[in-house]
Amino acid sequence: MIATKGYAVHNSKDKLAHWDFERRELGPKDVFIEIIFSGVCHSDIHQVRGEWGNSKYPMVPGHEIVGRITKVGTEVSKFQVGELAGIGCMVDSCRECNNCKGGHEQFCEKGQTVYTYNSVERDGITPTYGGYSNQIVCDEAFVVHVSEKLPLEGVAPLLCAGITTYSPLKRWKIGPGHKVAVLGLGGLGHMAVKFAVAFGAEVTVLSTSPSKEADARQLGTHKFCNTREISQVKELGNYFDFIVDTVSAPHDYDMYLKLLHTNGVMICVGIPPEPIQLTGFLLLGENRTITGSSIGGIEETQEMLDYCAEHNIVSDVEVININYINEAYERVMKSDVKYRFVIDVATL
Fold this sequence. Notes:
Blueprint lengths: L1 E7 L8 E7 L6 E11 L1 H7 L16 E8 L11 E4 L2 E3 L5 H4 L12 E2 L19 E5 L4 E2 L6 H4 L5 H11 L7 E5 L3 H12 L3 E6 L5 H6 L4 E4 L3 H6 L4 E6 L7 H5 L2 E9 L12 H5 L3 E4 L5 H14 L5 E5 L3 H9 L6 E5 L4
Parallel strand pairs: 10-11, 10-13, 11-12, 13-14, 14-15, 16-17
Antiparallel strand pairs: 1-2, 3-4, 3-8, 3-17, 4-5, 5-9, 6-7
Helix pairs in contact: 4-5
């Protein structure tokens, strides 16, 4: 076993603190990555605090991982020592079902998707621990190449926030001629804006915070709507082809559905913990659609990273020392970050 340093919690009320643990030995298909940066995702907070009801302790969070490969197994063919690499939300799956073979490992039909943390390996016993640590071992099939062109701290959140917004925009073929609204300008929202603008769509940010208009404009947004101003909202009735909803707090779905044009689509990438409520006739009346989207598969994640390298797209981040992580969590809950915290693992 490989001695590893990390930050962990041991129950839902615990604060993250230093914890020594062990990684598995390098297998023939594994790569060994010395972690450089690890992003802080809102889902880390949900799982650390047991808010989704499936938390396993002790827990080392983190699924936005970038680092450098320092060792490879004897049968590794896709990576070499010295290369930059990334790991996102998954580290394994059954690899045999139609979804896995089709590049949708996140939807493994056998239910064997192994998540980067708060999960167990396919042996059903070995727990997985995430990126708030100094090193990680992973099968090469679930590792992605990272370009040397981009600042690594800005690349780390692409492994979750990036692919979560890139994937539905690509699936719905959003591009020139489309009017797209992004609801919420946070970790997910600012990446949705960057991708939608890059794809050539007209982009509007919908936000309850008028102070975010300047940031939205700087990110390339064409329009901004303060949704607390009813007059501004009414002006956008039946206007959008797509709304990318990144908000994970309760909000008025009916109000936003009314902003969709005929055949418009509302894509939910942020989901509140409570059941969603909406008026069904708002869907029937204009043939609207409401849908959800999760992360992407490994192939699509690599595609996204390659696109970002080509178009110079990264997340806007605040780099922190790991001993600041508990304060960072509180600031995330207050939306006090532009727009993603990233841990400098060298401070571990």
